[in-house]
Amino acid sequence: MDPNTLRQLNAIESLEARYCRGLDTKEWPALDSVLADDIEVDQTALGGDRIAGAANYVAALQNNYGRAVTVHHAHMPEIELTSPTTATGTWAMQVLVVRPDGHRVLGFGHDYDTYGIRNGRWVLTATKSTRLHLDRS
Hints:
Helices cover 28% and strands 51% of the residues. It is an alpha+beta fold. It has a 6-stranded mixed sheet with strand order 2-1-6-5-4-3. The longest helix is centred in the N-terminal third of the chain and has 22 residues, at 3-24. It is globular, with a radius of gyration of 15 Å. It holds the Pfam family SnoaL_4. This is SnoaL-like protein. It comes from Nocardia mexicana. Residues 5-126 form the SnoaL-like domain.
């Protein structure tokens, strides 16, 4: 694999790490910085909605998870560079959500992501979340 391809793959893996950290630490501006302004989000498999736009997505995340403790782990990336400025990625996901009332959800599944280069950097342009198993307590 050539050095440029390795750099691009590493940049996308780092983007995913910043996305998870921004969400879990509630650093909303940091989270917003890894999203394309026109991101398309599909959370229908989780019982959620389709959301268009970074501002709407961050607002939905703040509303749903702002007071919860969350831990998102993205593992085993399958990243394909589809052009010099686009890529797709599939990530095995493990997600823990603990609500203020103590209600807990532990989920296992996959995120299917699309990336693009905007203003010289990789950003998330679309994401679809699925779950294979949920533990609720």
